[in-house]
Amino acid sequence: MVEVIEWLKQNGDLKIIDEPLDVILEIPHLAYVEVKKEDSRPLLFTKPVNRAKGIEYDIPVLMNIFASKALTEKIFGRHPDEVAEGIDALLKLKPPKGWKAKLAALPKLFSLKNVFPKRLKFRGECQEIIIPKGEVDLDKLPILTTWSGDGGPFITMGQVYTQSLNGEMQNLGMYRLQQYDKNRLGMHWQIHKDASHFFDQYQKAGKKMPVTVAVGGDPLYIWCGQAPMPHGMFEMLLYGLVRNKNAELVKSITNDIYIPRDVDIVIEGFVDPKLTEIEGPFGDHTGYYTLKEPFPVMEVETITMKKKPVFQATVVGKPPLEDKYMGWATERIFLPMLKPMAPDLIDYNMPENGVFHNLILAKMKTLYKGHAQQFMHAFWGVGQMSFVKHAIFVGEDAPELESFESLTEYILNRLDPQKILITQGIVDQLDHASPEQLVGGKLGVDATGDEVSRGVETALSDSELLKKMQAINSDVIELRQYFTQTKNPVCVVTVTKSKAVFEDIQKLETLQEHIKLLVIVDKTNNDIDNPYMLIWRVVNNIDAQRDILLDPMIIIDGTNKGEIDGYEREWPGDTLCDADVLKGLQAKGLIDIDEVFIHKFGLLES
Ligand SMILES: Cc1cc2nc3c(=O)[nH]c(=O)nc-3n(C[C@H](O)[C@H](O)[C@H](O)COP(=O)(O)O)c2cc1C
After folding, report:
1. How confident is the model at residue 112 (pLDDT cuts 50, 70, 90)?
2. What percent of the chain has pLDDT over 90?
3. C-alpha angle 595/597/603, rounded to 5°?
4. Residue range 232-240: mean pLDDT, rounded
5. What DSSP string describes 38-55?
6. What does the angle CA 207 – CA 209 – CA 214 come to, to the nearest 5 degrees?
7. How far separated are the first and last CA of the chain, in Å rounded?
8. What is this structure's pTM?
9. pLDDT for the residue 471
10. Is pLDDT at 2 greater than 60 in this prediction?
C-alpha cells in the first residue's frame, strides 16, 4: 500500500483538521463522535498539542482509519467474505488427482508462497531516524488521553511484536500501552493472550523479554494485530494471505524482533519479568472503565521512525466505534476457521452492542438432539471464542442474522426455559460482571427448534402492568414491553435499587400470566426507549449464574451490582464524555451533535 495519508485522501474521504487540538480529551472526543455518525470518515489532526505540558507536536495524529464497512473493505482490497472464501478453499485443499486437477490447483499453491513474511537484510523506512536510549522521550509522541477517568495517556493502536524464549514463535498482538514517563510503558497483554504466554516463559527463565511496538504503516497490520489467530501462528501470515504479498520485515535495532519495514514509529525495549506497575484505569471497549491492576512494564531502549511519521490511534468506549468495523472483518474472515470444529455452523454474528464477547448469534443446521448444546461447549472451549458470555443458536430456517427485528422475533417465539443452559467458564479479563475475575457465568440459548406452544396468557398494557409491578416492588420506576406479538414479549423495567433485585423475587409469581421474560435495569444512565443501548448494558452487566432466574419466569437482572447484591469487587463506571470538551468542540464548529445524538449513544450522564 502507498503512503497511508495519500491513500486515505484518495480512497477514504480523509477529513483534515488543522485547528490545534489537545491530545487530552479533545482529539479523542472528536474522533469518538465522528465514528458514531452514519457517514463517518477517517480524521487527520495536523496540529496536536498538549496544553498542560506546553507541547506542540510535530507528528500528526490519524484516527478512524476503519471508519466504515466500505473503507474496511477497501483496506482489505476486497470484501472480507471473499477473503474468507479464499481461506475456506485453502482449508479444503486436497492433493489433486490427474494433470487437469493439478493445473487447476496451481494458482492456489502459488499464492501460498506469498503468505510467509520476508526478512530483509537492510534497514526499513521506519528506521530513517534513530533516537538513542539517552534521548528517548515518549512525550515527543502525541499519545492520547481518551477519557477523563483514564490513568494517563495510552498508545491505543500499538502493534506489539514479541517472540518466544527460544525464538521459534513470533507474535503480533494489539495491546494498549500506558505512558508512565519519558521511557516506560505499561504493557497490557491480558493473561489469555499469546504475548503473555511468551512472557511466562521469560519469567520462568528469569530473563528480560524483548518487545518491539510499532505504530502505523499499512492499516492491515493493525487488523492483523487484533485478529484471534491460534497460538503459535504469526499474524503476518494472515497479512500475506490477505494482501497476496509477503510482509516485508526488518530487524529491530536493539533486539532480534522483526517488524514491518513501512511502519511509522517503532518503540524497542524489554519487559523485566520481575517488575509490575499499576496500569489503568482505562475507558475500555466494553464502554466501562477497566480498573487499576498490576501489569508488566516495558522499558524503552530506542525509538526509530520515518522522516515524516504519522501517529495512528483509536478510541474505545461505548459502541459503535472503529472496532465495530475491525470486528466485522474478523467475524467474516474467521468463519471458515470455526467450521472444522462446528461443521454444521452456517453463519454467526457478533453484534457490536454486544461488544463482541458478550453476545454471539449463530445459525446452524441441527441434526440431532443436543446439537446446539454441543456447539455451545465447542465455542466456549476454543481460543478467544471461549470469552463469549452469551450465545444464542438458531436453526437454518431463521432470518438473516443481521435482520435483528425478525431474528429477535424468531428467538422469542422459541425461547424455552428448558432449553437454556447456564454454566461456568473463562471470561475476558475485562469482564466486570463475574463475581471473580477471569471465571464467570455462561448462557447458552437453544432456539433451533419449533415455536413454543404457549405465550402470555393475559396481556396487559404497559401502564397496567407498571401499576401491578409497583404494588409489588416500590423500586420500579418505568416499564416498557417489546415484541408483544411474540410468545415471549420482553418486559423491561427500570429501578432505583434499595435492595437486591432478586430479594423477594418470588412475589412476582402473581404476574406469571402477564410476563414471560423480564429484564431489569437501573434508572440511572439507561433509557428504556433505547433497545440498542439496553442490550449493550444488559449483556455487559450480567453474570448468567448470578443474574438469571428461570422461575417464576425468565428474569434477567441487568443492574449495576454492589454491596447489596453481595458483589465484592469494585464495580466500574461507564465511559462518559466531558461535557465542557464537547461544548468547546461544538463552539469551534468541529462537531455538530444534538441532544438526540448525545442521548442515543449515552455520551453524557443521564
Ligand atoms: C482497539 C483494541 C484494543 C485492544 N486492547 C487490548 C489490550 O489492551 N490487551 C489485550 O490483551 N488485548 C487487547 N485487544 C484484543 C487483542 O488485540 C486480541 O485479543 C488479539 O487477538 C490478541 O492477539 P494474541 O492472541 O496474539 O495475543 C484489543 C483489541 C482492539 C481492537
Report:
1. confident
2. 94
3. 90
4. 95
5. TT---EEES-EEETTTTE
6. 170
7. 44
8. 0.97
9. 97
10. no
pLDDT in tens, 146-196: 999 999 999 999 999 999 999 999 999 999 999 999 999 999 999 999 999
Task: Name beta bridge partners: 130.
Answer: 304
What's the 179 CA to ligand 1 centre distance in angstroms?
A: 17
Using alpha carbons, select from 372, 369, 370, 368 the residue that is nearest to residue 360.
372
User: Which of 175, 293, 318 has the most ligand 1 atoms within 8 A of CB, as the residue to mutate?
Assistant: 175
Taking 70 as the threshold, does the pLDDT of residue 221 lie above it? Answer: yes
CA of 111 relative to ligand 1 center, distance in Å: 28
C-alpha dihedral over 546, 552, 554, 559, to 10 degrees? -50
How many other CB atoms sit within 10 Å of the CB of residue 419?
Answer: 17
Domains of the chain as residue ranges with CATH: 4-313 (2.30.110.10), 340-447 (3.40.1670.10), 462-565 (3.40.1670.10), 576-606 (no CATH)
Mean pLDDT, the chain, whole residue set: 96
Neighbours of 418 (CB within 10 A): 7
Ligand 1 in contact with 385 (CB < 6 A)?
Answer: no
Closest ligand 1 atom to Cα of 194: 27
Q: Which residues contact 606 (CB under 8 A, 6 or more apart)?
A: 524, 525, 527, 599
pLDDT digits (tens, 9 = 90+) for 305-331: 999 999 999 999 999 999 999 999 999
Predicted confidence at residue 318, as pLDDT, reads 98
CA distance 146 to 506: 44
pLDDT band at 458 (very low <50, low <70, confident <90, very high): very high
**Residue 231: which residues within 8 A CB-CB, separation 6 or more?**
194, 197, 383
| Residue 322 near ligand 1, beta carbon < 6 Å | no
Mutate to test the pocket of ligand 1, among 66, 192, 193 (most ligand atoms within 8 A of CB): 193
pLDDT at 477: 98
Q: For residue 284, indicate whether it is catalytic.
A: yes
User: What whole-number distance in Å separates Cα of residue 438 and Cα of residue 426?
Assistant: 6
- Which residue type sits at 103? L
3-state SS assignment for residue 522: strand
From residue 294, alpha-carbon distances to 185, 197, 279 in Å are 12, 17, 6
Cβ–Cβ under 8 Å, residues 316 and 326: no
